[in-house]
Amino acid sequence: MSEMLARLARFSEMLAEPFVGREEEAKVITLGLLSREHVLLVGEPGTAKSAIARRAAELLEARFFKYLLTRFTEPSELFGPLDIEALKHGKYRRITAGKLPEAEIAFLDEIFNANSAILNSLLSIMQERVLYDGYAELRVPLWSLIAASNRIPDEPELEALYDRMLLRHRTKPLSENKWAKLLEASWRIEMGAIPPARPVLTLDDLSGLHRLLFKVDLSQVKPKLLKLYAVLEERGIHLTDRRKGKALKIIAAQALLEGRMTAEESDLLSLKYVAPRDVEDFDKVEIILSEELRTPERFFRELTEIGENVQQVAKSIKSMGSYDPSLIDIYRSLRAARSRVSLILRETDDIEVRRKGLDVIRSIDEILDEISRRLGI
Question: Are 79 and 100 in contact (CB under 8 A)?
């Protein structure tokens, strides 16, 4: 078991490896595969959505199908053309070689462009792993569908499809501090210097890990989970009954990904992939979870905010005179911020949080020294 859990963690690392700043996308796809659920990536084109889905299939040696949907896409483009020879003999069947019905992992770009004919078939494939086509009922080997869109649907006819995607993640463009690494990575890809993906797991391994999912002990987190559902509902975030129940699979998957057979409170952060409905919900849910859970992520977010404020203060005092009266107020505010950061450091053992906190204290101390020098204190 320990070896399989280690390989699962390795899979997530390898999935993110060629992509700059896409660790979160790799994680949400890993959770989707582990729970055998479907994933939606929301974001503008050019943010590595299809590439990371293809790499997931390569790392699993899984059959992969990819297609960009438009409102003119015909069912035969996804499910295969009709077999004319069979039709001559009164048999209705499709030639599915290389098409979605034979894929184990599929990526559908702009999925909400699907017309009604495709929509109905996708719903049955995603929910039942069955393609109902004419007089035929075809079982499909699809493990997980990874979909992409640049929008959240608001059409009633798309609501059922949207709800089938248990995991939802907003894929953002990289921040400016990662552009240099992006250029280096892009150049290596253009040169063909990225080695091909070597399989880390097989689908049989993944199936075994999926069965292990249901042996994770969730008893410690269920009371807190119920409280979180109530808090989210009060704050305007509504989860359907289906999503409330299936969230347990994602929490268990998060525990497995961390190498544990017992879920902890920190695993409830995975709700940020399950709870959002609208675009603005992504940030809102994350804030609510960080407020309700005593997790490293909560402290890290607070330290980041304090650090950004300290940087703004450092810029503003450059234009102030040596004896500007507002320096005294700034000095007091910085002392209070330093006390808060020190308190966080006493409450956490997380290495990354402590490193961030020490960096913020160092920045605060530099400004305090500068103000003291100016005021002669």
Answer: yes
Cα gap 376→205, rounded to integer Å: 67
Q: Give the domain-ending residue among 242, 275, 292.
A: 292
- Tally of structural domains, the chain: 3
Least confident of 19-23, 164-168, 173-177: 173-177
Residue type, 12: S
What tokens appear for 3 in the block?
């070896």
> Is there a single domain that holds both residue 32 and residue 179?
yes
Residues 105 and 146 in one domain: yes
What does the alpha-carbon distance between residue 299 and residue 360 come to, in Å, rounded to a whole number? 12
Report how far apart, in Å, the C-alpha atoms of 259 and of each of 2, 49, 249 are.
7, 26, 15
Give the chain's count of helices (H) and strands (E): 15, 7
- The 3-state secondary structure of 193-220, one letter per residue: CCCCCCCCCCHHHHHHHHHHHCCCECCC
Query: Are the beta carbons of 129 and 140 closer than 8 angstroms?
Result: yes
Provide the 8-state DSSP code for 82.
B
Which residue(s) pair with 41 in the sheet? 148, 169
CA 175, chain centre distance (Å): 17
Average predicted confidence (pLDDT) for the chain: 90
CB atoms within 10 A of CB 27: 19
Domain of residue 19, residue span = 2-191
d(CA 127, CA 146): 14
If asked whether residues 77 and 143 sit together in one domain, one would say: yes
> Considering only CA atoms, which of 143, 48, 152 is closest in space to residue 103?
143
- Closest by CA to 301, choosing from 348, 233, 239, is 348
Looking at the structure, do residues 319 and 222 belong to the same domain, yes or no? no
What distance in Å separates the CA atoms of residue 96 and residue 286, rounded to the nearest whole number? 41
* Domain-located, residue 148: yes
If one counts every other C-beta atom within 10 angstroms of the C-beta of residue 28, the result is 24
**Under a CB-based contact definition with an 8 Å cutoff, are residues 8 and 27 in contact?**
no
Q: Which pLDDT score is estimated for 100?
A: 96
> How much is the pTM?
0.79
CA distance between the termini of the chain: 62
Nearest C-alpha neighbor of 143 from the set 231, 256, 38, 277: 38
Q: Which of 292, 326, 341 is the last residue of a domain?
A: 292
Same structural domain, 268 and 304: no
